[in-house]
Write a structure and sequence with these properties.
Elements (H helix, E strand, L loop, with lengths): L1 H21 L7 E2 L9 E4 L4 H5 L3 H18 E4 L2 E4 L5 E4 L6 E9 L4 E6 L2 E7 L44 E8 L2 E6 L2 E8 L23 E5 L3 E10 L2 H4 L9 E2 L9 E3 L4 E4 L2 E4 L4 E10 L2 E8 L5 E8 L5 H4 L2 E6 L35 E9 L2 E6 L2 E7 L20 E8 L4 E9 L2
Antiparallel strand pairs: 1-13, 2-5, 3-4, 4-13, 5-12, 6-9, 6-13, 7-8, 7-12, 9-10, 10-11, 14-26, 15-18, 16-17, 17-26, 18-25, 19-22, 19-26, 20-21, 20-25, 22-23, 23-24
Length: about 450
């Protein structure tokens, strides 16, 4: 009996391959939905795909077979469009994908709460964004397209950059690019998530420094519950590892250091120099170099190179005078924290820490002399730091009660200020400094 059903399973897979060829996707893409039936799909819920991927072929087949009755109850095809009634298992591709670009169109109705799982990981969120939908307390008022399960609102990608949803009854165009754990989402030709890491939902309770990476391959899932949703033109292009490494920042970010001089900067200008298009603190010099412009909520991306034992800092919401660690919102440590000269550090002095207030995870700096990629997101009183694509800090400074040395940090609740660099006498260098202001 198992032999016969396995042959049927293989036959279904062959049909699935032919269905890909029948559609007319864009050049380089395949069609995941043939416009006729549910061939090539099965049903799964919110569950770690690693579990069923490790099943024996016979046990996996039984799980696959049991799901078909459910999806054929709640999913239908009408005039080339996939229709879900708001219930049942999520439509799940039989094939697993690694790095890819996914294009699809969807149409929502009142009370719809849906999403697209990437490699079986939740999710690119799709909302009923109206007040009547009752989900504003969860962030639905901000629009669809965000990586909603990424955690708190301060984590990059969790909420969309702009509200780009079309009204009920109109087709929305979703374009998702995933390389490694990084995801970029465009909704109706508007950038809503910009190269943000997708958090591993299946290991979300583990400390950041011990969290498992995302699985390298998994299915695309169309999640739905709460209301009818329709889908069409579901196309996917697999991306090779060599091409997926070529990342280009969106124009949404503005360059704030031109690589030539200190135009647009004030403060300790004479303590810094420009070398090979990088901004660098002069040895033995210090002070705070800061932007002329002031910022409220923002996202900064930059590259950092630290010499052996080097020390500097990122000044957040700096008022323009005083020590940024105390008078600004905070100074994020930039430090070779593994050097012997720093062996007696308080954890709130590690690289990426909000100095004296909140400790960052240690161990993600590249070897001395190499460029590190760092991102800092500031929203309200929350600060998140990603170092070389790993989250090392996610904290709300308004809730900090234990301060290093029992000192006061009067600037930590500032709502606006300059962005800058706090030099401490070492030749720490910065380049590719870009910033995105949030509305």
């Amino acid at each position: 009996m198992i032999r016969c059903t396995l042959l049927h399973f293989i036959a279904q897979t062959i049909i699935f391959s032919f269905c890909y060829a029948k559609s007319n996707p864009p050049s380089g893409f395949i069609s995941l939905f043939n416009g006729v039936n549910l061939d090539g799909w099965w049903g799964a819920k919110t569950e770690d795909p690693s579990a069923w991927k490790n099943l024996s072929p016979a046990k996996y087949f039984l799980k696959w077979q049991a799901s078909l009755k459910n999806i054929h109850t709640h999913w239908t095809v009408e005039d080339g469009v996939l229709v879900n009634d708001g219930h049942g298992l999520f439509l799940t591709t039989e094939k697993n994908f690694g790095d890819f670009e996914l294009r699809l169109e969807y149409k929502t109705f009142p009370n719809a709460d849906s999403g697209v799982y990437l490699r079986g990981v939740p999710q690119v969120q799709i909302w009923d964004t109206t007040k009547e939908g009752g989900k504003w307390k969860y962030g639905a008022d901000k629009g669809s397209g965000g990586l909603w399960n990424n955690g708190s609102p301060s984590v990059p990608g969790r909420d969309p950059l702009v509200h780009a949803d079309k009204p009920f009854g109109e087709w929305n165009q979703l374009n998702i690019k995933m390389t490694g754990d990084r995801v970029t989402v465009n909704l109706n030709q508007k950038l809503v998530v910009n190269d943000s890491p997708l958090m591993n939902y299946w290991d979300r309770r583990t400390p950041v420094n011990k969290r498992k990476p995302l699985i390298s391959k998994g299915p695309i899932q169309l999640q739905t519950h709460g209301g009818e949703i329709r889908w069409k033109n579901i196309f996917l292009k697999e991306i090779s590892k060599s091409s997926s490494n070529n990342k280009i920042d969106s124009k949404a970010f503005s360059t704030i250091f031109n690589g030539k001089d200190f135009s647009g900067w004030s403060g300790a200008v004479k303590s810094y120099e420009v070398t090979d298009s990088a901004l660098q603190c002069k040895p033995g010099k210090g002070g705070t170099l800061y932007t002329n412009k002031r910022y409220r909520d923002f996202w900064v991306k930059l590259d950092i190179k630290i010499p052996a034992g080097g020390n500097n800092g990122l000044a957040l919401r700096y008022p323009g005078k005083g020590d940024p660690a105390y008078m600004g919102m905070c100074e994020l440590q930039v430090l070779d924290d593994m050097h012997p000269r720093h062996s007696m550090l308080d954890p709130r002095q590690y690289h990426g820490s909000a100095y004296g207030m909140a400790p960052a995870m240690q161990g993600y700096l590249k070897p001395v002399g190499e460029w590190n990629q760092q991102e800092v997101i500031v929203k309200g009183s929350e600060v998140s730091v990603f170092l070389n694509s790993k989250m090392i800090l996610n904290t709300d400074l308004s809730k900090t009660k234990d301060f290093m040395g029992n000192k006061k940090y009067p600037g930590r609740l500032l709502k606006e200020g300059h962005f800058g660099f706090a030099g401490h006498g070492d030749s720490v260098a910065f380049k590719n400094v870009r910033i995105l202001e949030f509305n």
